[in-house]
Structures are given as structure tokens and as C-alpha cells.
Protein: Putative dehydrogenase
Organism: Aliirhizobium cellulosilyticum
Amino acid sequence: MEREALRFAIMGGGLIGREHAALIAATPGADLVAIADPAPAAAPVASEFGARHYLDYRTMLDEMRPDGVIVALPNALHAQAAIACVERGIPCLVEKPVADTLEAARDLVAAAERADVPVLVGHQRRHSPDIAKAKQLIEEGRLGRLVGVNAMWLADKPEAYFDAAWRKQAGGGPLLINLIHDIDCLRFICGDITEVMAFTSNSVRGFEVEDSASVSLRFSSGAVGTVLMSDTAVSPYNWDTAAGQALYFPHQPENAYFFSGTKAALALPSMDLWKHETEAGHWQDPLVKRHVTLDGSRAYVNQLAHFMKVVTGDAKPLVSARDGMMTLATILAIARSSRERRPVNPSDL
Ligand SMILES: NC(=O)c1ccc[n+]([C@@H]2O[C@H](COP(=O)([O-])OP(=O)(O)OC[C@H]3O[C@@H](n4cnc5c(N)ncnc54)[C@H](O)[C@@H]3O)[C@@H](O)[C@H]2O)c1
């Protein structure tokens, strides 16, 4: 028997909320029924998608009783909005970061686990075929033992991006908005991060929040890593433009992550796998480059398809609130390490 279309609602009709609306509208079996956002610009967005417009998200939840909700609000509102869904037994996809503080994240994790209502965190890159494949290759030992990773997220945001004041205040900033995606990917692919050491800088933009950072990582496997991040650097070295999997960025094929193991190296998102011709090969022997083929599927489309399975009870969240909280803890450990000029273990937070 054919299932009725799932009824979705969105909290926050801003930059990413509108993209979620368009994705739902383009997905068979999914209907967008309402958007809650008090901003005047949100009413025409709702009507463009044939959805009802609400000023208050709690009223929207109570009146519309959607099957699933996407929380696309400023970071500081994520936890309370997701808890409002959990309290009503409604599964939600909450944009990253899961919350702006660990206290708020803990409240959400406790509420979701107590009520057994699924919460999926919007780390959409985990649904991207290159990220999923890298995890698989490393877990299968195709790189031998993972030695380390070198990652970059470098891009130049325009001035107008910072008209939304939350983006340049504590709780916003590129550690929580951008680097969190890379850290989540690295945790997903390489395993938990047990120690971080970081330098941050706000010397270019001069905002309260950082504009650039360099980070050293230690993974529980013993592998180590480095990450360089800036939102004020002209560069193709960021996963969003390099992978062509982001929604509103040009595709500029390049690499952003370099994994090195005892038997092979892998660059992402090109999926170039470098190794010697024979097992006996070493640094004086040539390396051979092979390309690993992907399925061509799209990260945000896959994420929505997964969320639909979560809503119907056919899948557990690939990124649970607890998992999202550990990614958040790792980012907050990076911020603390820079402030206190010392290594920090995310678990100690
Ligand atoms: N996963 C991704 O690729 C991705 C991309 C961009 C943003 N994000 C995340 O999505 C979230 C939103 O980011 P954005 O860039 O769309 O921000 P935005 O400022 O463009 O949009 C946020 C919207 O929320 C609305 N809002 C504020 N308070 C509200 C309330 N109480 N009830 C309902 N609506 C309210 C605002 O009016 C605004 O329209 C952030 O957490 C950000 O980190 C994720």
C-alpha cells in the first residue's frame, strides 16, 4: 500500500531554511505544510512553497502536528526548539551545531533519550558519498593503519553575510558554523578525537569571534591530524566548493582532506588513492594513483531521504543528538584550547 506523503514543517525560513523548503518541495512523498519565522521576509517564503506561515513555532507544532520538523534557527535556539519537538513526540532534523553550549546539548540529549524521540543533527556531509566511502575504505584497512589527516576549510565570506549579527557574536563564528562540519567528518571517518590544541585569530575581521584557526588533533586510534580554517581567505581548499555537494556554492574541483596510512594515501573529495605497485614498495618507488568511483548521489538529498526513514521509524539517526554533542564538545575544546593555550580533551568538557 502506498504511504501518504510525510508532512514537514520548518522552523526558521532564512538562508538554509529556504533550501530545506526547496528540497522538501522537490522530494516525492514529502509535503511542506508550514514555516515558522517571525521575520517579515518569511511570509512570502511560506506562500511561495504553499505552506502556512506562523510567527511562533510552538503554535505551529500544536496546530499542524507535522510528521517531522527541520530546525533551521540561529544556533542558540536549536536545543529549545528541538526539545519542543521531542515533547510533542515529533522527530526533528536540527541543523548543526546541535546547540550553542554543552549544557543546552545535554538537555536535548536527555529529553530525546528519555522520550525515545529521534533527533537527527544536520551534519549533511556524512550523507555525501565521498565521506561515506572514505570511512569505509579506512575501516576496511585499505590505507593500512591510519597515520594522520591534513584538512583545510578556507573560504572568503562577503561582508553582507555578517548583517545577521548572531554570526559574529559568541555562539556564532566559523568554528561553530563551518569547522564543526570538518570536525564532524573527521570524527566520523577517523574515530573519536581525544585531544586538541589550537590557535585562533580574529586579526583580519576584528570581530568578537575568530576568523581563522589552526588545530592539531589526536584520535583515539593513535592517528594525528591538522586542520587549517579561515572564513576570510580566498581559496578553493574547502570541502563545500571542492566537493560540489553544497547548495549555494560553485563547484571548484580540488582537494580539502588528505588521509595518510601505512599502505596508501587518500585525497578527498577527488577520491584519488595513492599506493605503491607492490606491498614491498617504499619511498624510493613510484606511487600509482587510482580513482575510487562514487555513486554520484547528493548529500542534502540523501540527508532528507534518511530523515524520512527516521520519521517513519525505518532508520535510526545517522547523527544522533548525542553524537552531535560530541562533535560540539570537540569544537568547544578547540575554542578552549586557544583561550587557555593548552591541549584539551573534549571528554573533559
Ligand atoms: N548544514 C548546512 O549546510 C547549514 C548551512 C547554513 C546554515 N546552517 C545552520 O542553520 C542555522 C540557520 O542558519 P542560516 O544561515 O539559515 O541563518 P539565518 O539567519 O539566515 O536564518 C535564521 C532564521 O531564523 C529566524 N528566527 C529567529 N528566531 C526565530 C524564532 N524564535 N522562531 C522562528 N524563527 C526564528 C530568523 O528570522 C531567520 O529567518 C544555523 O544554525 C546554521 O549553523 C547549516
